[in-house]
Specification:
By secondary structure, the chain is α+β, with helices and mostly antiparallel strands. The protein is built from 21 helices and nine strands. A four-stranded mixed β-sheet has the order 3-4-7-8. The chain has a three-stranded antiparallel β-sheet with strand order 5-9-6, with helices on both faces. A two-stranded antiparallel ribbon has the order 1-2.
């Protein structure tokens, strides 16, 4: 057993059989992928990596597996799945997720191409784990997948604790060990015992508070929109058949690749990012300001480039001067609870009025953003309000955003 010192969990134990996987290229690459993308532009301490998070998730997954009294084979399956669950991420984590989904037609959770051949596949075979089972766990299809893929999973427990630690934001408090001891496996997957409701509520509160403070902070969103535009312009210059190559880079090599692009747009955007000369918010509005018919159109199309093109045409600006950011609508947090002395499973929302309030709060936190250079904010704002049929904010709205 190898012992690794971790600033969040203390000492993390790594089974000797897993060490070759820990040292494999796909896992070691995560040392050079920032966990929070460009959040370090807001919180200077947020330079932790996907590697640290994967170790922490593996640690909690092993503890939960043992708490659930799983067989030794299932403990190994869950532990290895947790270690490998993020190896599909592109550079700067979620900052390049949109490019991956659009041009490779997969998400970071689809890692079949990384585990079915090469050294990782060989190591999985050596310890008796089928790559297909790993994929099933990470994609949320396995009966045990709720341990690392659900609203009450160890992945969330670790990243909330870790992100709060490195950003200094005091909202990520999670009683991970209480949640682990309060979880059970049923034929419907992972569920919560009634005595874990308070700990579950605490986790959901942490997720809700961390969204606007860290995960959807407008500065991070702007930086991500800029790097996404720079990467797409670079791919136009080298050919979209090179998307896989670009997404297999780590943060540093990705940044240098695009900074030295043949595309002048890419070079300008990356230089601005390097100097923290960021675009500003011309439009940053919630659902209450976007009329329902417009919102349905915007969300269903998810066509940020088309909206940007229309705004540019109306303002006479080149297309790199307007960036549109349409986050996915937040899904409702849902956890099933087994009621004491009964066999019934009830939703946490039915037992906890707080959960319903938190789900409504998450919807209210959603923001549609249109970003541009500081000198063009006014004309972009006026054009966007007209084109998207958005209600102009009141003085109170401006104070909130």
């Amino acid at each position: 057993m190898k012992i690794i010192k971790d600033p969040v969990h203390g000492y993390v134990e790594v089974d000797e059989r897993i060490l070759p996987l820990l040292d494999s290229v796909p896992v070691q690459r995560l040392r050079y992928i920032k966990q929070l993308g460009f959040s370090h532009m807001v919180y200077p301490g947020a330079n932790h990596t996907r590697f640290e998070h994967s170790l922490g998730t593996m640690h909690l997954a092993r503890l939960m597996s043992q708490s659930l009294n799983l067989s030794s084979e299932d403990v190994m399956l869950v532990t290895v799945s947790a270690l490998l669950h993020d190896i599909g991420h592109g550079p700067y984590s979620h900052a390049t997720e949109g490019i991956m989904e659009k041009y490779t037609k997969r998400s970071h959770q689809e890692i079949k191409h990384l585990v079915t051949e090469g050294p990782v596949a060989e190591e999985l075979f050596r310890i008796g784990i089928e790559p297909a089972e790993i994929c099933s766990m990470i994609e949320g299809e396995h009966n045990l997948a709720g341990i690392i893929h659900g609203d009450l999973d160890v992945d969330r427990m670790d990243y909330l604790l870790r992100d709060a630690h490195y950003t200094g934001v005091p909202y990520g408090t999670v009683d991970a060990h209480r949640l682990i001891r309060s979880s059970i496996i049923t034929d419907k997957g992972l569920v919560l015992k009634e005595n874990g409701i308070n700990a579950a509520e605490s986790l959901l509160i942490a997720r809700t508070l961390m969204r606007p403070a860290v995960y959807f902070h407008h500065v991070s969103r702007i930086a991500e929109a800029m790097v996404k535009k720079a990467a797409i312009e670079h791919l136009k210059s080298i050919g979209f058949e090179n998307t896989e190559y670009l997404l297999n880079l780590y943060d540093g090599s990705f940044f240098m690749e695009i900074s030295n692009s043949a595309s002048d747009v890419s070079k300008r955007l990356m230089k601005s990012l390097y100097q923290r000369n960021l675009y500003k918010r011309a439009i940053y509005v919630g659902m209450d300001q976007v009329k329902y018919s417009s919102l349905l159109k915007v969300i269903s199309l998810k066509d940020e480039d088309s909206i940007a093109a229309v705004v540019c045409e109306a303002t006479g600006l080149p297309d790199e001067k307007v960036l549109v950011d349409i986050p996915a609508l937040p899904s409702s947090m849902s956890i099933e609870v087994q009621v004491r002395n009964h066999n019934d499973l009830l939703s946490l929302e039915s037992l906890s009025p707080l959960t319903k309030t938190l789900n409504e709060t998450r919807k209210q936190q959603w923001r549609l953003g249109i970003y541009t250079t500081p000198d063009n904010r006014r004309i972009v704002e006026e054009a966007a309000y007209e084109i998207l049929n958005i209600e102009k904010p009141t003085k109170q709205d401006k104070l909130i955003i």
